[in-house]
Amino acid sequence: MGENIFASLPATRTTATYEPDGSFVLESETPLLPYERCVGDWLENWAEERGDRIFIGERVGEGWRTLGYREFRNAVHRIAQGMIDLGLAGPESGSNRPLVILSGNSVDHALMMMAAMHIGIPVTSVSVAYSLMSKSHERLTSIIERLKPCAVYADDALQFAQAFAACEGVERFIASRNHLECEGVLPIQRLIDTPAGPEVMLRFSELTADTHAKYMLTSGSTGVPKIVVNTQRMMCANQQMIAQYYPFIERPFIEQEAPRVLDWLPWSHTFGSNHNFNLVLRNGGTLYIDNGKPVPGLVDQSIRNLKEIKPNLYFNVPKGFEVLLGYLREDEGFRRSFFGNLQMLFYAAAALPGPIWDELKQMCAETGNDVFFTTSWGATETAPANTNVHWRLERAGNIGVPFPGVQIRFVPNGSKLEMRIKGPNVFREYLHDPDTTAAAFDEQGFYRIGDAGRLVDAEDPSKGILFNGRVSEDFKLCTGTWVCVAGIRANVHKYLGDLVTDAVVTGHDRDYLGLLLVPGPGMRRLAGDDKGALSGSELMANPAVRSVLENELVVMAKNAKGSAQRVCRASILESPPSLELGEVTDKGNLNQRRLLETRCDDVERLYTAEADERVIGIL
User: Fold this and answer.
1) Residue 430, SS3?
2) Lowest mean pLDDT among 169-178, 344-353, 544-553
3) To pair with 175 at 20 to 30 A between CA atoms, which of 105, 186, 300, 548?
4) Can you tell me the distance from the alpha carbon of 323 to that of 447, in angstroms, rounded to the nearest whole number?
């Protein structure tokens, strides 16, 4: 299986054009081919060509609720007509007022999303955490106030009742279940039962490449989430780019090997929605919604689903692969089934630590299937992918080369090269925020994505780009030496492994580097803390934890190259990072900047003259 994929991957060339100031622009010599007008064209096409093929499914009890392309398309038309009849579309609804979806991935979520976009209503899928994990609903209230949606949907009206109540000014609420428990909530079934009229396809025919399709929210890692206008052009162009570098998804070698994906990644984020959902839809594949997640209490459901569905394309974040590895180690049958059916294993959203990469590769080799390991790099503002690896990778870290039609400008910024993006997949505006929009682009019209990178080989740009962290996270020690935060965090994972899940790097204008550690499963095992109940100071007081941490930090320091890599003190966060306080994004990533503010007392403790019992010092 893998041999066919590797044989199909295109040989491409990437060129660099240098500017007098040391900047240079990277782009592919492969031209971007024509692409569809809107994502609904994919649905209409497959409803006719592969109408009986399963498009989407979700687990219901012991089985799966599935809809074929034709059945899904017909339901989209009926729901769209119901939306028109409710006055949610067209001039009477107000200019570009979106449909807001509060609940997680589901068949009904997909139907509502596609129906809205089919008739020109933009869609905003909001992180479930804003509704169910937040006590104050401040972020949700702010989002609703800024978007002024035409309607709000959630799968369960009772479960989301408090979130509905926080949506001030919204007149129309829709739900799939328990609508009778909440006054004024319309059942989705009423929309599904609406006969579709000619107005649906009339409005569909009026869509253009510049029609607003989605209002995607950024993670909020640098403050209040921004509202990114995603047009039909952005999404369609990006999927064409992907297909040109992954020809096996567009023209499968065996018809039965069309994309078969099991995915948990939320549609409130661009990875799960614009990348994975759209990839399956664009290429006539099948998407099974994973009701699990790589967290305690839910991961067992993912394992069960993986054993049953046996996907041929698998997408996850590094943390997800780390959790999955534990199950693959323990179950040889699962290991052989998982790798034996895969064509491609794809990671993104963060760097995949070397040990995880190595173990996945080793397991794969033992099955005899040559799986294609790959990744991309992108953002909400780029719908989402800008680069791609379409060759055999020997190790993690390379984020590939620009897609056809994408230009990446490398600009010197401090000790790094800042990457900036231009292409048809790049957004043009943050909704109702012209000042932030203007600041997001440089004088040549390139989007300032905020990430840094460098060429694997300065003499041959076709060998790819190494990701080099966020420009805004880096800082200088008081000596003036630049510190690469991404590099320090990579070393933390390398040396501390599962003792930690992440770390906050400190040291701005200080004499030395420090770490605030987020305890991981390995640390809690050492402390006998199976339920995760111990605080940071209690973990630090445990002799076994303290001894292992100190030993590993000493090894890490001995292998450091200079003060910009040598960590001298470390402590454990007293309590987990808080979504409510903005310390962690709803994707689970640490907000380094925010944590340095909210945990300022912990930071100061790392720099007192005498380290106390809550700090490990190896000065």
Assistant:
1) strand
2) 344-353
3) 300
4) 34
Q: Give φ, ψ of 593 to 5 degrees.
A: -60, -45
Q: Is residue 431 part of a domain?
A: yes
pLDDT in tens, 342-374: 999 999 877 788 888 999 999 999 999 999 999
Q: Which residues, 6 or more positions from 88, have their beta carbon under 8 angstroms from its beta carbon?
A: 97, 99, 116, 121, 150, 151, 172
DSSP sequence for 519-574? E-HHHHHHTT-TT----HHHHHT-HHHHHHHHHHHHHHHHT--STTT-EEEEEE-S
Give the helix/strand (H/E) hosting 306: helix 299-309
Q: Which of 587, 442, 438, 566 is nearest to 512 (CA)?
A: 566
DSSP-derived secondary structure for 14-48: EEEEE-TTS-EEEEESSPPPP--S-HHHHHHHHHH
Q: Which two tokens stand for residue 212?
A: 């607003």
Do the bridges between strand 385-388 and strand 313-316 make them parallel or antiparallel, or are there none, so unpaired?
A: unpaired
The CATH number of residue 154's host domain is 3.40.50.980
Nearest to residue 130, comparing CAs of 154, 95, 107? 154
ω before 149 within 30° of 0 (cis)? no
Structure tokens at 83: 């939306």
Backbone angles phi, psi at 67, to 5 degrees: -130, 130
pLDDT of residue 414: 78
Q: Please check whether residue 218 lies inside any domain of the structure.
A: no
Contacts of 379 (CB under 8 A, 6+ apart): 270, 386, 449
* DSSP sequence for 569-614: EEEE-SS---TTTTSB-TTS-B-HHHHHHHTHHHHHHTTSSS--TT
Helix (H) or strand (E) holding 84: helix 69-85
The encoded tokens of residue 465 equal: 């780009």
Closest CA to 292 of 302, 283, 306: 302
| Residues 96 and 183 both lie in one domain | yes
467-483 residue pLDDT tens:
988 887 888 787 777 78
Q: CA 118 to CA 110: how far, in whole Å?
A: 12
From 438, 470, 502, the end of a domain falls on: 470
Residue with tokens 């023209």: 251
